Description:
Blueprint: H1 10-20, H2 26-49, H3 57-73, H4 78-103, H5 107-127, H6 135-160, H7 173-202, H8 209-240
Amino acid sequence: MASGNPLFNEKAYQQALNRTGSAMTLQGTINKTFFLLLLCAVAGMISFHHTAIAAYTGLIALVTFAISLIIIFNKNTAPMLAPLYAVGEGLVLGGISAIYNAQYHGIVAQAVAITLLVFFIMLFLYKTQIIKVTRGLAIGIVSATGAIAIFYVVSIILMLFGVNVSYFSSTSPLSIGINLLICGVAAFNFLLDFHFIDELTSHVVVPKYMEWYAGFSLLITLVWLYLEILRLLGRTNSSRN
Length: 241
């Protein structure tokens, strides 16, 4: 599966490795991932408890998105920019979570718990090979993720032009169903993240900065799943009222 992917261009990585002098390891990746999660969680708690930061949520989100694009297209910037991304994402999540928690007390703790539960379930399914990441499965997950990304972009553009996109505010069974589907796709993206890390630490030799990039990738998936679960819990709570 990896041989046809330019991401696993071992010759290019070997050249980078010669310059950096150290290679990516699984333990190093785990350490970097937990560090990024810690930064995100601390920033989120600060933003959650200081509502004044909420006024800048839009600006912080735009800057954070720009940082993520730089990392994606220039992976060797990950050691410097991934921590900044984690802090920015945490500030945004804290503001959004505070809004939801004001409406539905306790919903944030539920969303965090479910997100972590899903993460460990997918890790178990991957490690036990109950679900194997085949080329077909990977293509399916990437295609579904791309379709969702297009859906979001088109929806945002429509909203900018004053068009009401009911999905984001509706509590209808259809919206809840779509929300559940998106949660499922987000969860399956963990499999790609785990496989990505396995490939880079087991089958090819890549430079140390890829530990930060792998942690950054996992953080993106966790944040996406958390937001979708938070939205889903908000919908289900509204539909009961």
